Amino acid sequence: MTRHRMAPADAAWLRMDRPTNLMVVNSVMWFEEPIDAISLRKVLQERLVDRFPRFRQRAVEDHGVWWEDAVDFDLEEHLHAVQLPAPAGRTELEEFVARQLSMPLDRARPLWDLYVVEPYAGSGCALFFRMHHAIADGIALARVLLSLTDDPAEEVQIAEPAEEHGLSLIGALDGMWHEAIGLATHPLRAATLAQAAVSDATALAKLVLIPADHHTALRGTAGGEKAVVWSEPIALSRIKDFGHQAGATVNDVLLAAVAGALRTHLVRRRSPVHDIRAIVPFNLRALDRPLPAELGNKFGLVYLSLPLTTARRDHRLREMSRRMTAIKHSAEGFVAYGILELIGLAPAAVENLAIDVFASKGTGVMTNVPGPRRTVTLAGVPLRGTIGWVPTSGELGLGVAIFSYNGEVTVGLCVDRALVPDVKELLADFTTELEELLSSAAQVLSPR
């Protein structure tokens, strides 16, 4: 039986599971037509299981942590048919997804599952993927899922695993939204930041010595019961045009709206309002290169302070833009990656303490995943939309996900009900805040 020692960073994520917060990346894809079952299985076998060995290997802890080939691997054990209660729409799918988030993956099998929901929203279907963070980071897993799709506008040539060790996605991801939070693809910038991280005592001190985040109604003891919601699609062009005129990126605009929504949320709950820190995964893998067959985690973490105490929307957007610019030129992501590798080598008690310390410095996790600009298909069926969440660690109970696809942006919330009991109102706050921001162009664009 073949074994491969698990990389320290991957082992850290494997051992981070807690009953209140499982380290599982959860993603939903929805379609307006059903997908042929035989065609779906063929795609999964060829582009997931055969291409990336981790999807046919189990995690084993035996005098170390290992990836071990599952000699009895059966694709069918990972596929689950689901029928939602009527009317089988988005609300019912959100409730189904929320219930699954507290269910651990079976450690006796490879650490992933796929739920096929049919029918969905009339005559369509949905796919709900669950993949353990030990397999790979959220950006890599998003690319894995997109590698299951094809771009009808191009003849996408998929290389054999022996040649490329992973899908390049040059066709499917042509025109990626490069304003996503993460490292630019240019290797010179990566080398510069990596070199800076080695000697950047300031970045290390900030990560280790910053105090716990402010206490608000969003922080406390997680209960384990989850809730998820996601927005209606938002036209990316409208946000991009507004941001261009305001001298801000799409990310700046969206995160300013998130900050405004959280401010409204705290005021409604009669909570103290403070600037709070979001823990942001910082991609360290070049997006224009093929994924390695072994996948793995290649990212750091940065703390982004959200300007909740800034009352005026125009001031909040400018402050958000300033803070985002500082984050993009920071070496903190590389430093945090090194710390995560060290955590993976530490005894369990030390690891648990380190994770609690890391989590205590933030209030939630926020991610931004870029997707294709054009419609892509899976087994010949057009993908209508998608959203996904990376897990929250420790006692964190707020996850915000932003996914851009086919000229639209979807924003999803994943929360612990004990900490955020009114998630639908929070999503409505975001929608209102974004609309008010985009409608206040005259004020935002006024001279500074």
From TrEMBL:
It comes from Nocardioides pocheonensis. Its EC number is 2.3.1.20. Pfam families: WS_DGAT_C, WS_DGAT_cat. Belongs to the long-chain O-acyltransferase family. Gene3D superfamilies: Chloramphenicol acetyltransferase-like domain (3.30.559.10), Nonribosomal peptide synthetase, condensation domain (3.30.559.30). Keywords: Acyltransferase, Glycerol metabolism, Lipid biosynthesis, Lipid metabolism, Transferase. The keyword Nucleus does not apply. Pathway: Glycerolipid metabolism; triacylglycerol biosynthesis; Lipid metabolism. Residues 296-437 form the O-acyltransferase WSD1 C-terminal domain. This is Diacylglycerol O-acyltransferase. GO terms for cellular component: plasma membrane. The lineage of its organism: Bacteria, Bacillati, Actinomycetota, Actinomycetes, Propionibacteriales. It catalyses: an acyl-CoA + a 1,2-diacyl-sn-glycerol = a triacyl-sn-glycerol + CoA. GO terms for molecular function: diacylglycerol O-acyltransferase activity. SUPFAM superfamilies: CoA-dependent acyltransferases (SSF52777). Residues 6-253 form the O-acyltransferase WSD1-like N-terminal domain. It comes from the Bacteria. One of its GO terms (biological process) is triglyceride biosynthetic process. The keyword Acyltransferase applies.
